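worker-03 picked up job from queue 'complexes'. Input manifest follows; two sequence lines, order preserved.
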Amino acid sequence: GAGVSQSPRYKVTKRGQDVALRCDPISGHVSLYWYRQALGQGPEFLTYFNYEAQQDKSGLPNDRFSAERPEGSISTLTIQRTEQRDSAMYRCASSPQANTEAFFGQGTRLTVV
Amino acid sequence: RKEVEQDPGPFNVPEGATVAFNCTYSNSASQSFFWYRQDCRKEPKLLMSVYSSGNEDGRFTAQLNRASQYISLLIRDSKLSDSATYLCVVGSYSNYQLIWGAGTKLIIKP
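worker-03 finished. Artifact:
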């Protein structure tokens, strides 16, 4: 399809394990955002890429979280040594360029048990 | 004060009525504005961009008031399918970030 694709859709992991969440943006989109969203809240910014450059990672909660977009297309958000408080919906969005409308994937529901 | 603020609602509105809600923003340098719609447990989807001159798309009208730093969304002849959470989004050309409101929940009742 032509939309933003995220995988897996659902991930259940044990506390202490590492997880990698994948985002495949719309082809040609320069900007890529990672968000985390709690129920009843708006998306919470995690990090932003312009092409392959991670221009802001100020929203990442701590150093267990990292993200990359090595070729300026697919991005991976990695959470090391997961904790229960990491359980959330993780959303990826892409846009043609910064500050234009963003298109979201269906998200990855992460549950840490 | 949050950068983008919305009344969380819920707004309970009878079918066929007109409903409006606002979103205020704190950064006067903001240049791009959007309304998104989010259904329960789904991803946000763009409803409409908000232009300086305001814009209309069918039953939906969006307005921007730069002086008072708010944007509004008006829904006319509301339908049951309009029930959703409406998210306000503001962007600034000085950075890339899109700042999201927490959303306003709208419930249309038959």
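worker-03 released lock.
The first strand of chain B starts at residue 4 and ends at 6.
Chain B touches chain A at residues 4, 8, 31-32, 34, 42-46, 49, 87, 89, 91-93, 95-103 (CB under 8 Å).
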